[in-house]
């Protein structure tokens, strides 16, 4: 008479497990592919300063000016020291 209805509880368990699994995968994807989090492709903090691509706008402008030849190497290094990013 009620054949098959005894397993309805398992449907809820599987549904919850699927929902939790999907949430975990989304959370991991956001953490791995999020920008500016200071982690490299390996998922570990990269040693030796800030992660690539996170230079300040001032440093980017300075690099562009040096690449265009508007600054000498000496001026470039002096400005890096002023920014606190140089040797």
Automatic annotation (TrEMBL):
<feature type="transmembrane region" description="Helical">
    <location>
        <begin position="12"/>
        <end position="34"/>
    </location>
</feature>
<keyword id="KW-0812">Transmembrane</keyword>
<keyword id="KW-1133">Transmembrane helix</keyword>
<keyword id="KW-0472">Membrane</keyword>
<feature type="region of interest" description="Disordered">
    <location>
        <begin position="37"/>
        <end position="57"/>
    </location>
</feature>
<protein>
    <submittedName>
        <fullName>SHOCT domain-containing protein</fullName>
    </submittedName>
</protein>
């Amino acid at each position: 008479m009620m054949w098959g209805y005894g397993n309805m509880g398992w449907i809820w368990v599987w549904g919850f497990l699927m929902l939790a699994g999907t949430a975990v995968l989304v959370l991991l994807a956001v953490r791995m592919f999020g920008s500016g989090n200071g982690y490299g492709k390996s998922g570990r903090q990269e040693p030796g300063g800030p992660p690539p691509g996170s230079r300040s706008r001032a440093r980017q402008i300075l690099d562009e000016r040096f690449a265009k030849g508007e600054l000498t190497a000496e001026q470039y290094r002096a400005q890096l020291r002023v920014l606190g990013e140089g040797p």
